[in-house]
Every structure is written in C-alpha cells, then in structure tokens.
Amino acid sequence: MRMRLMLLGGGNALGQALIRLGAEEDIGFLAPRPPEQGWDVPSLTQLLDDTRPDAVINLAYYFDWFQAEQVSEARCAAQEEAVERLGELCQHHGMLLLQPSSYRVFDGTRATAYSEKDEPAPLGLRGQSLWRIEQQVRAVCPRHVLLRFGWLLDDSREGVLGRLLTRAENDEDVLLADDRRGNPTPVDDAARVLLAVLKQLDCQAPLWGTYHYGGQEATTPLVLGQTILGEARGLHPLKTREITAQAHAERPDAGAEPQHAVLACKKILHTFGIKPRAWRSGLPDLLNRYYRHV
Prior knowledge:
Catalyzes the reduction of dTDP-6-deoxy-L-lyxo-4-hexulose to yield dTDP-L-rhamnose. Pfam families: RmlD_sub_bind. One of its GO terms (molecular function) is dTDP-4-dehydrorhamnose reductase activity. It catalyses: dTDP-beta-L-rhamnose + NADP(+) = dTDP-4-dehydro-beta-L-rhamnose + NADPH + H(+). This protein is α/β, with parallel strands linked by helices. 43% of the residues lie in helices and 14% in strands. The protein has helices spanning 13-24, 41-51, 62-66, 73-93, 125-140, 160-169, 187-202, 221-232, 266-272, 279-293, and strands spanning 5-8, 55-58, 96-102, 144-149, 151-153, 175-177, 181-182, 184-186, 209-213, 244-246, 260-261. The strands form 4 sheets. The chain has a 5-stranded parallel beta sheet with strand order 1-2-3-4-9, with helices on both faces. A two-stranded parallel sheet has the order 5-8. The protein has a two-stranded parallel ribbon with strand order 6-10. Strand 3, helix 5 and strand 4 (144-149) form a beta-alpha-beta unit. Helix 1 (13-24) packs across helix 7, helix 2 (41-51) runs parallel beside helix 4 (73-93) and helix 6 crosses helix 8. The longest helix is centred in the first third of the chain and has 21 residues, at 73-93. The two termini are 35 Å apart.
C-alpha cells in the first residue's frame, strides 16, 4: 500500500476488524486516539493539518450510525458539522475520503432492492442525518467513496447483536419483525469490502462515487434472530427458546426503520470486483469473538 491511511474510529468494532484484516496483508493504519469529547471540528482540523495522510477512512461515529438504539438530535448535528469539516480538509489537502453510510437513507417503501440510482427519502433522525452527510461530502470533496452498508452486525455488547443475545440470556421476550427485509452484514465482511476499495484507490483508480454493500441473501429480522440464537446455543446458555414474530407496523421503531432495506450490490461488483459473501458464514467467528468478551 503506497498511500498513508488515516483511520478515524480504530477503537470500535469495524475499525478493529479493519486493522486486523490489514495486518494480515501488511497494511497499516494511522489510528489516532480520539480526544475525550470525541472527534469534532477543532480536533479534526488540528489532526489533519499535522499528519497529512493520503486517505481518510471515517469510522469515527460508527457506533452511533450503525449500532446504537437511539442517537440524539444534538449529537447528529455535531457529527454532521464535523464530517463537513473533514470533507473540506480532505479537499484542501488533496486527501481521499472513504465515508460509510447506510440503508437508512431510504424509506423502505419499495419491495425490490435499492440501487445507487434510487432517490433517498430517509424516515428517521439517523437516516436524515446520514443523507445530509452524504450530500455534504459530495459537495465539498469530489475525491470520495460513499459506501452504504446493510444491517451491520458486530461483537459489541451494546450493539444490535449484543442486545439480542442479552435478552435471550435473560429469558426476556424476544420479538422480531417477520415482514422486514434487509442484508445482514458481519463486521468482518464490511472490513473486507473497505480494504478492497482502498487497495484499488491505491492504484490511482478514480472510482469516486456511491456504492452499496450488504451480505448475500436478503432475509428478515426474525430469520436472522433465529439463526443467531441457533448458533449461540452451542456457545452459551440461553433461556429464550423461541422468538415471537411481530409485524413491522407494530415495532417501536417502525417510524424510523425502513421496512424494505435490501441493497442491490451490482455496482460495487462491476466497479471493484467485490462479490457479496453469505452472512451466515460470518456468524460463527462473530459469536466466538462476542463470547470471548462476555
């Protein structure tokens, strides 16, 4: 890798997965520790003025964007301001910006898979914030890759997977929608995609733009939950025996979560040669790592 890579968010689950994968190929990252209050406009300005990397991978707010149950409006606003400044800095210093986004930029009203050509219409606060961030990045930093992920799963205790397993361990009622659809995407697979994109950008390929990636085989939260608990029972005692199906409209997050969130991944295949991997194959490693932390 000829480029010097700056990774913001190296301490979170996706950042750690990217560092692990990079180490297997002798690809290293500058991964500075964030200030106590988190990365903001002044700290990002100082950091990039001092370090001048060739590319920035912005995972600084990964947990809020992909794993948290809720994020406050004030937090979203601060993150939007910081990413806009990051884009301006990247443009000013001639750096590439690799910026993640999410299926949440769509409203979920169409049953077929969303392509990059479909017009975003986000429902909730997080989706609206991510859509504004996308627009900011496009406006201020032409040399960018925006990568929209499907349902990301990681090994954090407080994340989507961790909350499900905690309820199952405590014999709480587990209700999951049986009429939502999306692409589960283990965090190691997401890291593989990020690294593959960086390798081609390192070859001076001007492949700027917006791309979709999600694990192979769209499914429902109910089937995903049943599969996770089936795998987890061999590793840890779970009190919950069955998951109860619930309609999307009855879910507490129905107003913010797209009912249909399947992403079409043809563009990233044709442009970067990145093939989707089956999400089921990534669950054993993910669960093993999760239970090592518990």
